Amino acid sequence: MKHEEKQPYVKLAIRKTDTLKIFFMILWEIKSMNDKRYIFLSEKLNELGRMLGGWNGQLEKQNSLAKTREK
User: Fold this and answer.
1) C-alpha span between 61 and 64 (Å, rounded)
2) What does each C-alpha distance from 31 to 17, 21, 28, 44, 60 come to in angstroms?
């Protein structure tokens, strides 16, 4: 799969991760999730978000380099 083809999927994964963070925060605020579980899941989602953000940044660089070379 080409770099340009991967980026929409990575961006979708970032949006879904952000949505999960919001849902978990709501569950925690209404006391449907205890502190320990919320902290554990939040840390995992933050780690995933950092990885996806790094991957997205790398794809953006590769895509911009490819566009520069085409010109």
Assistant:
1) 5
2) 21, 15, 5, 20, 39
Please give the average pLDDT of every successive group of 10 residues along the chain, which has 71 residues: 91 98 98 98 98 97 82 61
Give the pLDDT of residue 36: 98
Query: The whole model's pTM is what?
Result: 0.85
Sign of the four-CA dihedral 19, 25, 26, 28:
positive
H or E element that contains 48: helix 35-70
CA distance 18 to 68: 31
Tally of CA atoms within 13 A in the half-sphere of 45 that contains its CB: 19
Torsion of CA 10, 39, 32, 28, to 10 degrees: -80
Distance CA 47, CA 45 (A): 5
